[in-house]
Amino acid sequence: MEVAYGQPVDYVVLGLYFLAILGFGSFFARYTRTTREFFQSGQRFAWWILSLSALSVVVGSYSFVKYSAVGFRFGLSSTQAYLNDWFLVPLFALGWLPIVYYARVGSIPEYFERRFDRPTRLLGVLFILVYLVGYIGINLYTMGVALEAVIPSLTVFQWAVVVAVITSVYCASGGQAAVIMTDLIQAVLLLLAGFVVLLLGVAWLGAHNGLGLPGWEAFWSGLPLAHRLPFSGFAEPAEFPMAGVFWQDLFGSSMFLYFANQGMIMRFQAARSVHDARKAMFTTCLVLMPLAAVAVSSGGWIGRAMETWGLLPAGTDANRVFMAVTEMIALPGVFGFILAALVAALMSSIDALINAVAAIGINDLYRPFLVRNRSDRHYLRVARLLSLGFTSVGLALVPLFMAQESIYVAHATFTAAISPPLILVVVLGILWKRFSARAAVATLVAGAAIMAASFVVPDLVTPFARLHGMHDPDSVDYMRALYGFLVCGVVALLAALLWPLKDASRIEGYWVGTLAAARRAFKGGEPNDAAPGRRIRLRLVLAPEDPEVPDHADDLFPVRLAREDADRLAAREGDILYVAEDRWWLGGLRSVHGRLAVGDVEPGTVEAGARALAHGFLVAGRIMVVDKQM
Amino acid sequence: MNGLQFAYQYLVGGAFFLATLRLCMRPTDGAPLPPSDRRAVRVLVGGLGIVLLGHAAWILAVAT
Predict the structure, then answer these.
(1) Closest chain A residue to B37 measured between Cα atoms?
(2) Mind listing the pLDDT tens digit for each residue in A362-412?
């Protein structure tokens, strides 16, 4: 029997949320005038915006439903997938991030061409497009499932259509700026909602436990002892073994997210500097992920405590526990708010994917192969059309995914199947000079075949499960990532020994051993590392002359300071400066990068041309924060 | 009680963490690490300590 959750007022709140996010996202169309702004937002954003925005990519379409179900069945160990990403951060923050940022690569396949060769790029396009478009479909499907469970008056597919239309409209109009800014709102909303569920649930348990226990005591004592621990059993239960989660979530899903998910990488490339991108990554993994782990699981934990106290109907379906608990504890209107947060988690994953798939469509297919040498305005128009087109393709896949019996299995299987070879090529490309183009192609082709073979012959994975004491066939799938990394790793090693890279000079700046060269190429000169992080406040003045900036100058406009102000920054002629409005909450939305020219200007002012002001949405006469980047 | 899981996660994950940190820090083109990278390394190591101690404290709090 169909059960509708919530009251009409909740649906009004949800409808208002849809409209607000559509309007808010579309507003940022004015900040998108070039393809670089469409895909990378002109590399202008502050760390805190990107951190929250990255979180909303991590918290996906399935997170509230999936982790509440896991939390209901296995307790606080539902957090383990969110609390182990720190192991990946050194490779990301010190390796992958500076390489893609300094090289200003438009996509992962573009990196493949620069680091390896064109065939590797084309294989990368194939892999990543299949992943991204399929993932848009999975996300729309899971969104439809989640919303249909709450409001069954629309079908799964109809809900997917509603969300696809809203998301693709603001993505197509506002590009990366719209994605980042809407995701900022959505991240705050989803964290807030998760904690509202936890606090309301605890208060509700305090009022209804029947023994007069305070809320927190009723909550804690309502959880079985095994449910209070941070890890599930090592090899059991078969549906959630710690060792399996470790390999699948950390070395499968998370590694793919940070190293091969175009949407996530574009998020960090939108930072105003590598320093800010790193700060965003540190904050996401160390602060926001633990908060998100609580937010997405709390419905399940409260549900478990309710069940212990006999307050939840026996046999409640774990996949519906989030909705059941939320409706019980929330007042009308508040339930609508929590529902909007659920939708926020769903939409914020899809918008990043849409922008990412459009980036690959333009940067790796349309511009280099199909229609060359057209104006940037033309490519921007096509990027917008591709955003709509690829969303439609993803939507068309929804009926196919409806045939999958489990959301979790569908997502995990898909990710596990294609991620090891792709991740290995990225990681070995970053770390190992000897890893050549032929070795990369061999790893991608043979790796994909090896992964496909493991689905036809599941026994290939079984030894890795047995090694960890997992004997239940249900747990074997968890070890596919380990199988993939080891076997594909052997292929990569042999291929690199057989076909080593002969000329390392052409990969300068594209692997970790040459990051100094990458920084020099980014700046166009020797970086100035004196007194990093120093900032001064100056009044913006319009320069009387506005020299043309050549196309290859990468949006670095001439910016003039008085000698004494340059000295305060320990800056030299030619250094890269970042000039932003002195309103922190704009997060860099109104800002510009410039190249320092020390000259005859009034101390306490920063002088820039009309083009720089227009590019950065800056207004002469306002106070700016100026800092030296390198 | 969760001791095996804790050891497994921090031995395997920690080995990956330290190996990648070491590889990313090697100055093969002769230039020393820039100050921002040195600061990042300190945050990374400190962050690992926070996560490890957080998990350890959580297990001990439940176990005792």
Answers:
(1) A94
(2) 988 899 888 888 988 899 899 889 888 988 988 888 887 777 655 445 555
B29: chain A residues, CB-CB within 8 Å = 513-517
Mean pLDDT, range A105-117, rounded to an integer: 91
Residue tagged 């469409």 (tokens): A38
| Cis, bond preceding A237 (omega within 30 deg of 0) | yes
**Residues of B near A (CB-CB distance < 8 A)?**
1-2, 4-6, 8-9, 12-14, 16-17, 20-21, 23-31, 34-37, 40-41, 43-44, 47-48, 50-51, 55, 58-59, 62
> What residues does each domain of chain A span?
8-495, 528-628
Whole-model pTM? 0.91
Report DSSP letters for B8-37, one per residue: HHHHHHHHHHHHHHHHHH--TTSPPPPHHH
* Closest residue of chain A to B49, computed from CA coordinates: A86
Residue A550 binned pLDDT confidence (cut-offs 50, 70, 90) = low
Cβ distance A230 to B30 less than 8 Å, yes or no, reads no
Residue B59 has its nearest CB partner, among A229, A243, A274, at A229
Return the CATH number of A528-628, one of 2.40.40.20, 3.40.50.720, 3.40.190.10, 3.20.20.140.
2.40.40.20
B40–chain A nearest CA distance, Å: 8
Q: How big is the A-B interface in CB pairs under 8 Å?
A: 103
CA dihedral (A150, A155, A156, A157) positive or negative: negative
Query: Mind listing the pLDDT tens digit for each residue in A343-364?
Result: 777 777 788 888 888 888 898 8
**Which residue of chain A has the CA closest to B56?**
A230
If you average pLDDT over residues A450-478, what whole number do you get?
Answer: 88
ipTM of the complex: 0.96
| pLDDT tens column, A420-447 | 999 999 999 999 999 999 999 999 999 9
- Listed in sequence order, the residues at least 6 apart from A414 whose beta carbon sits closer than 8 Å to its beta carbon are A131, A134, A135, A138
| Rounded Cα gap, residues A143 and A156, in angstroms | 8
Contact B6 A231 (CB under 8 A): yes
Is residue A127 within 8 A of residue A107, CB to CB? The reply is no
Question: How many Å apart are CA A23 and CA A31, to the nearest integer?
Answer: 14
Domain A8-495, classified CATH 3.90.1070.10, yes or no: no
Where does the pLDDT of residue A549 fall: very low under 50, low under 70, confident under 90, or very high at 90 and above? low
